[in-house]
Structure formats: structure tokens, C-alpha cells
Amino acid sequence: MPIQHIKRFLQLESAGGIILFGAAVLAMVWANSPLAYLHQQFINQFLFLINDGLMALFFLVIGIELKTGYLEGQLSRLSQVILPLFAALGGMLIPALIYAWVNYGDPVSLKAWSTPVATDIAFALGVLSLFGSRVPLSLKLFLLSLAVFDDIGAIVIISCFYSANFSLVFFLLSLLVLLMLTLLNVFSVRSLIPYILLGLCLWVFLLKSGVHPTIAGVLFALTIPANSDPEHSLLHKLNNALHPWVAFVIMPLFALANAGFSLHELTRENLAKDIVFGITLGLFFGKQVGVFLFSWVLIKAKLAKLPLHCTWLELYGVALLCGIGFTMSLFLGTLSFANESVYLAEVRLGVILGSLLSGLFGAIILLFALRNSSNKQVLPTNKE
Questions:
Q1: d(C-alpha 372, C-alpha 366), whole Å
Q2: The pLDDT of residue 197
Q3: Distance between CA 70 and CA 91 in Å, rounded?
Q4: In the prediction, which pLDDT does 284 show?
Q5: For the chain, what percentages of helix, strand and coil (3-state, to nearest 5) are there?
Q6: Cα 275 from Cα 279, distance rounded (Å)
Q7: Measured in Å, how far apart are the chain's first and last C-alpha atoms?
Q8: DSSP character for 50?
Q9: Whole-prediction pTM value?
Q10: The domain at 3-162+212-374 falls in which architecture?
């Protein structure tokens, strides 16, 4: 992937993270204002459209980034992917185990084991961008690649654990549509219209089959043709068209519908509940331990190398930022308690606390680490 495309993508994600944060704050203010009833009406009216419909476009962009990274960039060689792959694996496994340990014995609360496994790349890159050019590009690429594998893990979890009322007929129809999309690619069809029409059919059939329809976005992305010339690549055109809408409209709408909760729920009793404690501990402690520990083992075993121009403390700071789970964590938590919405307030509280702690401590560690790195670079010049 050309370096200018990477930089443009990182800049877009940073801006999207700022807007996403603003939408989350607005959701909190709205949910605690005299107009809170309107917020609830907004959720009742548009939650399905946002969570099951528009989020499919979010997953479509993830699928495009995955395919593009494999074909053109940082995911094309094993040496480039092994460190973020294992770091992402640790960042999913340890938080899930911590949550399961906290909620062991309660089959209802145990349903949300997947909530702390996710990283919100928009927020994480947004915090990282606060340090500007002092952050090595290799560290940003490590975080971006890790987030891609993290999203793949979330997609697998959604596919395997959040499908209900399975219908074989509609599932087979989904496979038929997927085959038709693949044939369009094989026969080099370069018009987006047939892809979009079949993509809509894929979303409907997966919805009817019981498989979560957001998976349609990823499957659809993998069938879109790509070539080496970005100006004539359908994959690049679709990515360029969708990315601003996802970053600046769909994700803020998701935050507006899912992030708000009444501050009356912020009581000592709620904070002590296992769901809140498990998610908070999983995101803040589990993520940093999983990402950093798995990276450390791999590097010490000489199976991977520390990102170029990156220190161990900087890597640890990024591991902390991986605990910002916000968007995907809220999404997985919502799926976990789709039939027990009474627990959603606890999910939101845990996700917000864990994400805030991770972002705050990650920023502090990076501030200290990058300042030390800058001082070390300046010292030889001063001696001269």
C-alpha cells in the first residue's frame, strides 16, 4: 500500500475518532437531559436500522481494508503479520478469560464474554494521533494491522455465537448469491450495480437465515474485484466512497444509539456488578496484558521483531490503547443481551469505564515514552 494512502487513512480515522467521541458525549448528555424520552424513542425507532443495517457497511469497509491489506500492503507477507496477529490473539484471549473468571457461575452474565475482546481502531488511532510525527509510522501500522486481525476475530465470534433461529433455506440462498458475486468477479464484471444488487440480496437472505446480517458486509467485500491501478479498481472506488460515510456518519449514529445511559445507573451497586467489573477489567487489564505479553514472547523467541524505531515502552503504551473497545465492544455486548436488554446499561458502563482507563493510561505512558525517545535522539547532536 503506497505510504501516502496509509497516511491519508490514518488521518481519516483520527478525525473520525474525534467525531465518534463527540457523538458518545452527546448520547450521554441526551440520555440525562429532560429530552431523554426522545433519546429512547430514537433508539426504539432506529436501533435495528443502525445495528443490523448500517453496521453492515462498517463491516464492508473492514472487509475492503482486509482484502486491500492482503493484496497490496502490510498484510501481504508472513513477516509483516505474525507480530500483530499474535498480539491480537492475546488481546482477545486474555480479556475473554478474565471476564469468564469474574462471571463464572452466572450463565446469564457469562453471555457477554466477548464484549472486552475488541479494539476500537478509530478511538485508538485518534489518541495516537495526538502525538503527531513523534509516533513511529511502524507503530501506527502495528496498531492498524492488530485492529484488522481483532476485527476478524470479532467477525468469527459474531458468525459462530450470535446466530439464532437458523434457516437452512435462506442460508443456501445466501451461498447461491455469494457464488453469483464470485462469478461476477471471475468474469471481470466492472460495473458496481450488479454487485450492489446482489449484496443487498445477500444481506436480506443472511438476516432471514438467522446469521447476523452484518457478516454480509465482509463477504461482499471479498468478492469485489481489485487491480493494481487504484483509479480503475472497484475495490478502491468503493472504499473511497464509503469510508467518509462510515467514519463521519454511521459510527457517530451507532454511538448516539448505543453509548448513552442514565447517570442514575452510576451507583456503587452497579459498579460492583460482575458484568461491569468483568468488562472493565477485561478491557483495561486483559487487553494490555494479552497484547504486550504475546508480543514480548514472540519477539524474545526471535520469531518477530520490535516495530522499527519503536521502544518497548512505546509498544506497551499501544497495548494499553488496545483496551479502548468502544464501538465493537458495545456492538458485541448488545448482541450478547439481545433478549435481556436490562443488562445493556451495565455493558455500556463497563465498556466506557474500561475504554476511558485504557485511553488515559495509554496516553500517559506514550507521552513519557515518546518524550524519552526524543531526548535520546537530541543528546548526540548536543554532544557534537
A1: 10
A2: 93
A3: 21
A4: 95
A5: 80, 0, 20
A6: 6
A7: 38
A8: I
A9: 0.74
A10: Up-down Bundle (1.20)
Nearest to 258 by CA among 72, 39, 32, 63: 39
How far is residue 289's CA from residue 277's CA, in Å, rounded to a whole number?
Answer: 17
Phi, psi of 70 (to 5 degrees): -70, -45
Q: How far apart (Å, rounded) are the C-alpha atoms in residues 108 and 183? A: 43
Express each pLDDT in 261-274 by its tens digit: 777 666 666 666 78
User: Could you report the average pLDDT of every consecutive run of 10 residues in the chain (384 residues)?
Assistant: 50 65 86 88 88 86 77 63 91 95 88 89 76 77 82 81 77 92 88 90 89 82 77 79 84 83 66 84 95 94 86 93 87 81 81 91 90 58 42
| The pLDDT value given to residue 79 | 63
pLDDT of residue 81: 80
Residue 140: is it exposed, middle or buried by C-beta count within 10 angstroms (0-12/13-18/19+)? buried
Q: In 187-233, which residue ranges form alpha helices assigned H by DSSP? A: 192-209, 215-223
Helix axes 234-245, 55-72, angle to 10 degrees: 140
| Cβ contact 250:55 at 8 Å | yes
Alpha carbon distance 123, 127 (integer Å): 6
Phi, psi of 210 (to 5 degrees): 100, -15
Tell me which residue has cell 444488487.
197
Rounded Cα distance between 383 and 361, Å, is 34
Helix (H, G, I), strand (E, B) or coil at 311: coil
pLDDT of residue 73: 60
Identify the pLDDT of residue 8: 56
Using DSSP's 3-state secondary structure scheme, residue 367 falls into helix
Grid cell listed for 147:
485492529
Which among 374, 369, 362, 371 has a CA at the least distance from the CA of 126?
362
CA proximity to 113, closest of 328, 346, 333? 333
Using CA atoms, how far apart are residues 283 and 287, in angstroms rounded to an integer?
5
Q: What is the DSSP letter of 190?
A: -
Place of cell 543528546: 379
Q: Compute the Cα dihedral for 348, 322, 121, 17 and give only its sign.
A: positive
Interatomic CA distance for residues 29 and 317, integer angstroms: 30
Which residues, other chains included, contact 198 with Cβ-Cβ below 8 Å and sequence gap of 6+?
Answer: 177, 180, 181, 184
Question: In the chain, where are the structural domains located?
Answer: 3-162+212-374
